[in-house]
Amino acid sequence: MSRAEQWPGQWPAGAESIVSASEVASALDEQAVRLTDRLRARERVTLLTLMNGGLYPAVELARRMDRPLLMDYVHATRYRGRTSAGELHWVRWPGLLSGTVLLVDDIFDEGYTMRAVRDKLLQEGTEEVITTVLTVKNHARGLARDWVDDAALTVPDRYVFGCGMDWHGYWRQLDEIWALPAEPESPAEGR
């Protein structure tokens, strides 16, 4: 029985797996090596999870990083249960952070939430913020991608879920990445 049959209304129609669990694990392994090397000389590192989506990649990265890490979280959202972004809403802010902060999120879509968190951390006196995402969505909307310090995977410009990313709040726990069917281009967009 498929998930769509087993969980009617809680599994999106037409969803397809686009990144396997083994591909995600391999990308996280490689990302953890890069970050461990980059952070080797840092004495105090706080892995700061951008909730809720950053929980999955943060835990997976922390498990793979061979170094002491402090762990905390920030909760800022533009989605609030919707599938499209709105105004930034601060839910929880961590205490004073010193040293290096490794800010971890699930996806860099347009980048506004991560940039707002990074900027606020720096304004409050954090010495260094290293931005890290599991995925970068392949499109040109929003902010430039050149300020993200490390990304493990690139995903197509489709609605994706799994590995921290959700579909109406569900399926963040999946260890593979799924995508909804691509939106058909309108005649004007195809030109």
Report on the structure:
The structure is a single chain. The termini are far apart. Helix 2 crosses helix 3. The protein has a single domain, classed as Rossmann fold, CATH 3.40.50.2020. The protein has four helices and nine strands; from the N terminus they run H-E-H-E-H-E-E-E-H-E-E-E-E. The longest helix is centred in the first third of the chain and has 19 residues. It has 191 residues and is an alpha/beta fold. Helix 4 links the parallel strand 5 and strand 6. The C terminus is likely disordered. The strands form two sheets. It has a six-stranded mixed beta sheet with strand order 4-3-2-5-6-7, sandwiched between helices. Strands 1-9-8 form a three-stranded antiparallel beta sheet.
Residues in helices, as a percent range:
10-25%
Question: Structural class, please?
Answer: alpha/beta
Unreliable stretches: 186-191
Q: Would you list the SSEs in sequence order as H and E?
A: HEHEHEEEHEEEE
Q: Let me know the largest β-sheet.
A: 6 strands, mixed
Query: What is the level-2 CATH architecture name?
Result: 3-Layer(aba) Sandwich
Give me the CATH fold name.
Rossmann fold
| CATH structural class | Alpha Beta
The count of helical stretches stands at 4
**Strand order across the largest sheet:** 4-3-2-5-6-7
The N- to C-terminal Cα distance equals 41 Å
Q: In percent terms, what proportion of residues is strand?
A: 25-35%
Shape: globular
